[in-house]
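Entry 14. Two folds queued back to back today. First construct below, sequence then structure tokens.
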Amino acid sequence: MEEERLNRCEESKKIEQGTNLLIQFIPDTKTSHIPVVQLTNQLEANEKVPIVFVLPGVEGNLKPFEVLTSSMKTHVVDVQYNYQHPENNIQEIAQNTISHIECRLTRTVPFFFIGYSFGSAVALELVTLLENRGHLGTVILLDGSPTYSRCGVKKLFGSEEDANFQMAILNKIFSLVIPFDVLSEHQEALLNGKDFEERVDIARALMPPETINKQKLEKQAPVTLYTRLRASPDDLHIQE
């Protein structure tokens, strides 16, 4: 009995940790629709220092890194990807954000981009568009390049055949908040879902009722993640 109780406590702790991990990547609903957000720091708003545009990873916003960026001695602008209506490819993300970036630039001051992981592909696409419009600048890629990003997705999720790809993503996400044995028992039901959104509904119904912050783990989060992971960097205009 004691061992069973300890196992339940351990499972509950794991689910709570997984829930908290997922929630930190869900954007603030008050700002998630804004393409670019200037992050707070210790500088005056009109202080003449460079602007650094940061292209985040697949989570689409810099919320997990806000503590780090708040101490930077420069103006940091978070380039956000659309959460409620995620773009289908890298080009769409770049086209939807370039006007919001370009209005903060001048041709006499070089731009400065930092692309992290998935954001590296977005940064390269934006740089190409800006250079074609006469802008010059610097781009730094952290933990990512078009080839690296695609290989990373393949390594993490395996087959890109759509049903298998969807199942791999669902299992990765929901294994954080659903006991392994429960998730395993319902693999066939998940696979029989007519599309990704229905599979998400099935998986969410398996979440334990006592899950902390269950209401915050909304359906849109895995749908957006799936769409971004399918956004292929293979057809970028810039070549590595």
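Second construct, same run, same settings:
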Amino acid sequence: MEESEVTNDHQKGPIFLLTAMDGQIHVFTQENSDKDQFIESNNLATVFPIINRINDRRIRILYMHIYDQPNGEKVICAGGQDGDIILAFYDKELAIVYKCIKKNGLEKSRVLPQSGNYDSVLCSHVMDVDWDGENEILIGTYGRQVLIYKQVAGTQDYNILWRRQFSYPIYRISHLDLNRDGLDELIVTTMYGVHILQPNMRKARERLLEVLQHVDARKRHMFDLMLEYKHQKELEKAIIFES
């Protein structure tokens, strides 16, 4: 059994990793409501992806040690019953958005919140996910998470708009109108599969109605301006003075 500390949901707390002869590493975390009770958790495997590999291969671990370096990097060494020696290094860094690189270089930047909570960021993508005319930032992590960030209006900061966990690490994110209905699908490529996520049709319909209402109001406004212009021209014809 090995003990370590992780940050989960903005809270730092102890965890216990228990190796068993069934080839599984069981992770126990402290309950928020009861500090004296620990429960088994499956979510902490995102912090140590090597756990998934060990569990998939049913490696019977006889010895494990986690070393926390001063710079925040974690080193895991483990020895298996069949002679396997496993060594894993974890050094996670937050995703950073740089503004106007051509003008400012790498001096002006913004960190995407919680982007370092799910292991390494493997891919990123940009698209307008909520059809407001502004692009959002999507990132995929080795910790099997897809995070969508939206810029806060009037600022340079970003907030998490949407999050979803998959079964395997995320290798690529893209979008394409596959069924030619005018709405792009989100395509997520993982280690062992491709996932196609369709837009929310109810929200798409609501957004379309908003746009149509805006276009109709714009047309009415332009029509009223045209009538006012014609009326003004008719009044000018009655003027008897000229230069």
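Quick look at the second one. Residues 200-235 form one domain. The chain has a mean pLDDT of 80.
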